[in-house]
Write a structure and sequence with these properties.
The complex is a heterodimer.
Chain A lengths: L19 H17 L14 E6 L5 H12 L3 E6 L11 H10 L4 E6 L4 H8 L4 E6 L5 H15 L7 E5 L6 H12 L3 E5 L15 E3 L2 H5 L4 E4 L15 H8 L3 H4 L7 E3 L12 H4 L6 H23 L9
Parallel strand pairs in A: 1-2, 1-3, 3-4, 5-6, 5-8, 6-7, 8-9
Helix pairs in contact in A: 1-11, 2-11, 5-6, 5-11
Chain B lengths: L1 H4 E11 L4 E10 L2 E3 L4 H6 L1 E4 L4 E4 L1 E6 L12 H10 L2 E6 L10 H14 L3 E4 L15 H7 L3 E3 L8 H13 L3 E4 L4 H4 L4 E2 L2 H6 L3 E2 L2 H17 L3 E3 L5 H12 L4 E5 L1 H5 L21 H13 L4 E2 L8 H4 L16 H11 L5 H8 L1 H6 L15 E11 L18 E11 L2 E4 L9
Parallel strand pairs in B: 1-4, 1-5, 6-7, 7-8, 9-10, 10-13, 11-12, 13-14, 14-15
Antiparallel strand pairs in B: 1-2, 2-3, 5-16, 16-17, 17-18
Classes of the chains: A alpha/beta, B alpha/beta.
């Protein structure tokens, strides 16, 4: 079976563009990549000779390193460009920066940018695959992949009947938006919980339940996704203080006891211990936070592989 | 010599809303002024324009355009901006003072007037700033500005945030009986906003711009006008609640006037399908409910007129990440078909009513003696074919910029001849060169 036969997307911008079948294609490929992680020789030859550029216009450690490791496992070379090191500070536009990267013979571009829509914008300008590593508050589709992949390893491929609650700063969260779309495609019901200023009613237009009552959102949830409170994004007006947030919405041991046994606790990182999550709970058996990180590598390998082969088909024997 | 000065526009559907005229007939002008009839001798000499099958209207008046001169002439200048106006049927435009440097002193106004005398193909009336540098901190010299020739003051684009300054500005302006035009935006509420706050800002992950940012300043201005008696004109209203506030203010006799733009009455925030920067404007496109309220406001007179807020930006400035692209769209060349489709074809009003919003009602706000075909008035005349279909082609715009949400769209209704003071300044079909 060719793993990429039904994959036609050059770019990976938003879960909105991806069908459920395509999600399945990614997950199956990611699963097979995961089996290779334990090998002593971890490198696969799939993208040998290809150059991946990581263009990061916003700070990131986990996502950037994850993409770099994913590229390296597939034998691609990767180059990292950050805002401060690039010409963007000299007034070059994103369009020109990207076209220069293409002219430098890059084969794939992974971009993190603070402006929503920037990955879509780039994908219309350049011919090489554009992989969205987070654009403003719009989308972080590979994060949604790794989150759903982690749940899928426990729940199987159909999430029907499962309830996932996402707690925290939803308004500014691209992770939440991408996860809402992915979870719904897989059949799960999504509830958003948090202070009214960070979880506005408008979100119900996405087909989710909006709640400001932590207990009722927690009691019957099958997975709880915690989001970091992004102090750097809010203007100071959205909630009174981190202390107030923790006292109202932080998950401590007592509140964790409202959860059903076996409820999965997730966090995209970086976690703020003692703010949105109790330190012990982050390290508990229910927590899959580090597994998410590991799964991030294989999901990103799958996306890099599929998008690269949408441009230059690779035979499936080369994959593994 | 006499030959060129006599015009006989015959056989068109003549609509002159202020005179309640609507019917097939002729329009005459001699030496740049409308006359009731021509003598037999004049008829022999007259330049004859066959307007059969067309509508003959008073030239349109747009009290809100950005001509970008001085200082931003890469976007537009007085020559190109007034050509765009002529192409859209506008014979009179009022240009905003957010130039570079800002038009906050008599010298800059004189510079603009010189450029108008040299370059403009339609009538242009400048406005001056409310505050020095449009910074909202110190009053600009309103009296000197008026003496230099401005017909209104405004910090358009940068709403005066300090209510004490705005209070003194309108009180001071009242002494000169000059209109204060306000761009209603509470910048603390709109901070970072690039799109209407609502389901679409949520979906696109863009920072929302709430209606309340407009409503609060509209309320403030109503209150300031109530206490001072000054005339405040509220620019490009977008919010349903603002329409309601203005309606009640007018019922109380407060000297408030207001305008709506063609894009706000025809498009909503849901029209943004991707991150198309040609749908990014200030104030942003609102919801269908707001759009309907604007139309209702125009119909019952709460909103006095249509104004385009023609805001040119070059492609390289606009073509960026949505957050970083400048706000604004051009509008002069598409206003007529967009309004025809929205208001007339949409079944909200007849053609005569629409033309009233584009002519004498707009002129009346600033006491301009324009927008009518009454004998004795300036022979500013627009002839258009309401049924002619065309495609908005960025290459064809007279404007130097092409930042329009209608690019590539089929439109119905096109200006075929624009006449200013008896002289044809736009006639694409008969190849009469402008100026």
């Amino acid at each position: 079976m060719s793993l990429s036969s039904n994959w036609t997307h050059k770019d990976f911008i938003s879960i909105e563009d991806i069908t459920r079948d395509e999600l399945e294609t990614i997950f199956k490929l990611a699963s097979s990549f995961k089996q290779t992680l334990g090998r002593t020789q971890k490198k696969l030859p799939s993208l040998r000779g290809k150059t991946l550029v990581n263009l990061f216009m916003e700070p990131s450690t986990r996502t950037r390193v994850s993409f770099e490791i994913a590229a390296s496992r597939l034998s691609a070379d990767s180059i990292f460009i950050s805002t401060t090191a690039s010409s963007l500070v000299k007034g070059e536009t994103l369009r020109d920066t990207a076209r220069n990267i293409v002219a430098l013979n890059a084969d794939l571009l992974v971009m993190r940018h603070s402006a929503a829509g920037s990955a879509y914008y780039l994908s219309k300008i350049i011919d090489i695959p554009v992989i969205n590593a987070g654009d403003g508050a719009h989308a972080h589709p590979t994060q949604a992949l790794l989150d759903c992949f982690t749940l899928r390893e426990r729940w199987g491929s159909d999430f029907t009947g499962k309830k996932v609650s996402i707690l925290g700063d939803i308004l500014f969260s691209r992770v939440a938006r991408s996860n809402i779309l992915a979870l719904q495609k897989l059949g799960a019901k999504v509830t958003l919980v948090g202070p009214s200023t960070l979880v506005p009613e408008y979100f119900s237009s996405m087909g989710v339940e909006v709640s400001h009552d932590l207990k009722s959102a927690l009691v019957d949830t099958d997975a709880l996704m915690l989001l970091r409170i992004q102090h750097e994004r809010q203007t100071s007006t959205h909630f009174p203080s981190l202390g107030e947030y923790t006292s109202m919405f932080g998950i401590n041991a007592m509140r964790a006891s409202w959860l059903k046994p076996g409820t999965i606790i997730m966090h995209p990182g970086p976690i703020n211990r003692g703010v949105e999550i109790d330190s012990k709970l982050a390290d508990s058996e229910q927590s899959v936070i580090l597994e998410q990180v590991t799964n991030g590598i294989v999901c990103r390998m799958a996306v890099l592989y599929l998008c690269a082969s949408a441009v230059h088909p690779v035979s499936s024997e080369e994959v593994i | 010599m006499k030959m060129n000065n006599v015009l006989w526009i015959s056989g068109g559907r003549v609509i002159d809303p202020v005179n309640k005229r609507d019917g097939t007939g002729d329009v005459f002008s001699v030496d740049g002024k409308i006359v009731a009839d021509l003598s037999d001798e004049q008829k022999k000499e007259a330049q004859r324009i066959d307007a059969s099958g067309k509508v003959v209207s008073p030239g349109f008046v747009d009290i809100h355009v950005h001509l970008r001169e001085p200082g931003q002439t890469h976007k537009e200048n007085i020559a190109s901006g007034t050509r765009a106006a002529a192409a859209g049927g506008f014979t009179t435009v009022v240009c905003m003072p957010n130039t570079s440097p800002p038009a906050d002193n008599a010298g800059t106004i004189q510079y603009i007037k010189d450029a108008i005398a040299r370059e403009a193909v339609v009538n242009v009336y400048p406005t001056g700033c409310i505050t020095v540098g449009r910074k909202g901190e110190m009053l600009a010299p309103t009296g000197s500005l008026q003496r230099a020739g401005v017909i209104a003051i405004t910090d358009d684009g940068d709403c005066v945030q300090n209510t004490e300054i705005m209070r003194r500005a309108v009180e001071y302006a009242k002494m000169f009986d000059i209109c204060v035009m306000d761009h209603c935006q509470d910048t603390a509420l709109s901070e970072g906003g690039v799109l209407n706050e609502g389901v679409n800002s949520i979906r696109f992950g863009l920072r929302g711009w709430p209606n309340s940012a407009e409503d609060i300043i509209v309320s403030r201005d109503v209150i300031l006008s109530f206490y001072s008696g000054a005339h405040i004109h509220l620019q490009h209203i977008t919010s349903a609640y603002s329409v309601d506030i203005i309606r009640r203010a007018k019922q109380r006799g407060i000297r408030i006037t207001a305008e709506a733009s063609p894009h706000h009455i025809s498009l909503t925030d849901g029209c943004l399908k991707t991150y198309d920067v040609n749908f990014k404007m200030n104030p942003p496109l609102r919801t269908e409910e707001d759009r309907q309220a604007l139309i209702g406001g125009l119909l019952d007179g709460t909103l006095d007129c249509i104004a385009t807020d023609h805001a040119p930006h070059t492609d390289y400035e606009k073509d960026r990440e949505f957050d970083y692209a400048p706000f604004g769209v051009i509008g002069l060349e598409t206003a007529l078909p967009v309004c025809l489709q929205t208001l007339v074809e949409g079944g909200h009003c007849d053609l005569s009513f629409l033309l009233s919003l584009l002519t004498h009602k707009a002129a009346a706000i600033l006491k301009l003696d324009k927008g009518t075909l009454s004998p004795g008035s300036d022979a500013d005349i627009t002839i258009f074919d309401p049924d002619l279909e065309w495609t908005a082609d960025p290459e064809e715009y007279q404007s130097r910029s092409a930042n329009s949400p209608w690019n590539g769209q089929k439109l119905k209704g096109k200006v075929v001849q624009t006449i200013v003071a008896g002289k044809t300044v736009w006639s694409p079909l008969s190849e009469v060169a402008a100026n």
